[in-house]
Amino acid sequence: MSTQVIDLFPTPFMRVGGALPRGLVDALAAHFSAQAVQDNSSSPHLSHTRMLTPADSPLLVDAAGLITPHLGAYGELLFGERLGWSLKEMWVNVLDAGGRQAMHNHANSFISGVVYLTPTHPSAQTVFMKSPGGHDFAFKNDHAGVRMGPYNADKWVSPAPEPGDLVLFPSYLMHAVPPNEGARRITLALNAIPNRLDSWGYAIRFAG
Predict the structure, then answer these.
(1) 3-state secondary structure 175-190
(2) Residue 161: CB partners within 8 Å, gap ≥ 6?
(3) CA 23, 119, 15: angle at the middle one, nearest 5?
(4) Which of 27, 64, 102, 116 is spaced 20 to 30 Å from 137 by Cα?
(5) Helix, strand, or coil here: 191?
(6) Which of 105, 151, 153, 155 is nearest to 129 (CA)?
(7) What does the alpha-carbon distance between residue 119 and residue 173 come to, in Å, rounded to a whole number?
(8) How far is CA 4 from CA 7, 9, 10, in A?
(9) In the sheet where 127-129 sits, what is the strand order?
(10) Against a cut of 0.90, is the pTM above it?
């Protein structure tokens, strides 16, 4: 007799260590942290830049050139084909001590990502969650003796990042940042779209 557990329809999460070199990381943090003047609606200690594109800065051009090949590799996991990808928008987040980012996902994109530009305190590592359920009654087995794993957990704390690390995930995936108990945390967030999707000859193309 044999027993096999199969990961059915898993969600890919890609981590690229050192995707951006330290010199570029430091330059991005220094240049764009001063432009993060838009207050977050749910946390007074979190601010953002406006939405940016690579054309807005030579620094972003360099960053996009290093990030885009990873979008192709990750997109192949999602869609089964190596497609062309464009960075639809990029923005910098500045999270000071006491700040947090509420649970959210990203609309109007297919791949989202984060480049960590500064060290991250363990309290403020990005957390990913299952989407909230419907309005039906739910029963859970949730107590001190439960061993949490990928099949029964409601959330997952991403690995501790280093400056320059890139993570990519499907844009629909819910995520948040708990209250930051450490020093200022600066990240570069991004959304990406493919050049087209083809469903048996019915193609949708994205321009921008």
Answers:
(1) EEECCCCCCCEEEEEE
(2) 116, 120, 125, 167
(3) 80
(4) 102
(5) strand
(6) 155
(7) 24
(8) 10, 16, 16
(9) 101-104, 174-177, 127-129, 155-157
(10) yes
C-alpha pair distances (Å), 186 with each of 14, 119, 124, 131: 20, 8, 11, 26
Mean pLDDT by groups of 10 residues along the chain of 208 residues: 94 98 98 96 95 96 98 97 96 97 96 98 96 75 92 93 98 97 98 96 89
- Containing H/E element for 33? helix 22-33
> Tokens 């943090």 correspond to what residue?
29
Which neighbouring-strand residues pair with 85? Answer: 194
Task: Give the C-alpha separation, 208 to 188, whole Å.
Answer: 20
How far is Cα 94 from Cα 185, in angstroms, rounded to an integer? 6
The number of angstroms, rounded, from the C-alpha of 177 to the middle of its chain's C-alpha atoms is 11
Tokens 């708990």 belong to which residue? 178
CB 197 within 8 A of CB 86: no
Question: Distance (Å, rounded) from C-alpha 182 to C-alpha 119?
Answer: 9
Instruction: Please state the domain extents for the chain.
Output: 18-133+143-195
**Which residues partner with 92 through β-bridges?**
188
Amino acid at 102: A
CB 180 within 8 A of CB 121: yes
Distance, C-alpha 18 to centroid of its chain: 16
Instruction: Look at the block and give the residue holding tokens 């996009």.
Output: 64
